[in-house]
Amino acid sequence: MQTCFIFVFIICWISFIVAFTHRTLLDPLKYDSKFSQCDRCLHPLKWWQLIPVGGWIFQKGRCHWCQQPIDAFNPMIELILTTWYLSKFQIYGAIPTLIILTAITIITTTDWYEQWINPVFLCGFLPFRSVMLTDSHWFIYLIEVGLILFLLGMNYQQKLGLGDTAYLIIIIFSVGLTATCWIMLCACLLILLTSRYQTKSLPFIPYLNLGLILIV
To answer: What pTM was estimated for this model as a whole?
Structure first.
């Protein structure tokens, strides 16, 4: 019973955070209505269309009113992050895991739709440092510092975006060098697997976040 309650709360929380991000960070003018509406036909949505994951399934991935495809981003991020939370909150703690989940949701949403992130929300990853065992040998710290300097150099030469640079630096600091390397490897493999199905340039951070929840 407790697990069911947590599942419902978390999946609704993620749905709220995605909507909040769209309304306040991405395109506030587009969402000036106080009611949720279809992005295509602007028809106000009924309550059952707003059910996390369920609303997308009930409509078979298409708007009930205009029959235009509904972006699958929402149900995907809701399912993936809710599953991750249920598997980790007893390890990391309910509140730290919720903070991390919220940060992942916000920066994944902004980078997926508009390819930018607000570095302030990267602070949401810092609880990782207090709950994970990080590498402690002086040589590992030296490599971490060197990698951070390398990333800053890449950004200075405009070969790596500011958001990607800030993200990787925070991840190195939060989860350590070993986990960061595995996260980057997972992200690169996921991009290679999905790039053939994409017609637009792929943002890197959503894949890094997917690698993050797979590794840690």
So the answer is: 0.87
